Amino acid sequence: MRIAVYPGSFDPITLGHLDVLRRAAGVFDRVVVAVLVNPRKAPAGEADDRMSAIGEAVAEALPDLVGQIQVRIFDGLTVDACRQAGARHIVRGLRAVSDFEAELQMAHMNHRLAPEIDTVFFMTALEYGYLSSSLVKEIARFGGDVSSMVPAGVAARLRASAEEGPRL
Ligand code: PNS
Fold this sequence. Notes:
Bound molecules: 4'-phosphopantetheine
Order of helices and strands: EHEHEHEHEHH
Shape: globular
Number of strands: 5
Radius of gyration: 16 Å
């Protein structure tokens, strides 16, 4: 079975992430979405929220692929998440040339840590090439409409937390 891990912060998941996930599921038998819990970053939602947002988005946007996609939380090295999942590939999306340098470095480093694991890149669809989770959060925080950028459930959560006011 060809298994890949798609690691990321997914804070929150965007339509760009879903596009990469859909295309990865066309190549791999199973794609494990590994949600990074990084105590140094201040996540907008807890990891469980991010996980359930991904699960809901997959069920809604990619219903045919639900059986192929798993969502897990991880707080260590991506290569360890791959080994745990039995994956030989890491999936990442490339939106623009500006992503390339950091992604190249990460791919080489992961390959050095685990020579049996390769990184595979999918070019994010052009219409999502400008999307990023942090921009989406910023727009939502100031009351902007992000409904064309993120799954409906995520847009609703962002709207609700913007209405609650800023976190202290
Ligand atoms: O969505 P992001 O924030 O761009 O994802 C970055 C991520 C989670 C893929 C990267 O930070 C990562 O792999 N973190 C886990 C720790 C690790 O393995 N670090 C070494 C990478 S070479």
